[in-house]
Write a structure and sequence with these properties.
The chain contains eight helices and no strands. By secondary structure, the protein is mostly helical.
């Protein structure tokens, strides 16, 4: 069992250094697939499940199994904010910014000033207010005006670079 934990730690370190493909290969070797057997589910391997889910989402774009793995890690170690950060990254990779922000908010309840949660929050960015605030963000007027505002910002930044 200690050899397995050592391999999980190595794969987690690779993930932290953004070597996702190598880490995913190690996770697949340890867990044997996207659905790890029940004996592998312990608090000691929860960190591995979380980072395995992140690698699976970023490398193979398998979002549903990735979300399941990260949620299992949270069930095993609800107090570990890295699991929330990884789940938020998976949601962001899937294009679901709203769920990513909700996940970060959930993790912030226990650790409001955690650096890993704040870093993911910065990665997601802050959206500008809709041009016409009393209309839904998805309203065609807001969409068109928002696109025009963005195009103007891009043009201004290009002009400043020259």
């Amino acid at each position: 069992m200690s050899r397995i934990l050592q391999r999980i730690d190595e794969a987690v370190d690779l993930t932290k250094h953004e070597e996702y493909l190598r880490a995913l290969t190690m996770f697949l070797d340890v867990y044997g697939g996207e659905d790890p057997p029940s004996p592998m589910l312990s608090s000691k391997t929860a960190t591995g499940l979380s980072y395995f889910g992140l690698c699976l989402a970023l490398v193979e774009k398998k979002i549903k199994p990735s979300i399941d793995l990260c949620k299992r890690a949270i069930e095993l170690q609800f107090y570990n904010v890295n699991h929330y950060a990884n789940l938020a990254r998976v949601y962001a990779a899937a294009g679901n910014r709203k769920k990513a922000l909700e996940t970060l908010e959930q993790g912030s309840k226990t650790h409001p000033d955690d650096d890993s949660l704040l870093a993911v929050r910065r990665e997601l960015g802050i959206r500008a207010r809709p041009p016409v605030p009393f209309l839904e963000r998805s309203n065609p007027i807001n969409v068109t005006l928002g696109q025009a505002r963005h195009a103007k910002k891009v043009a201004e930044s290009e002009r400043k670079k020259k």
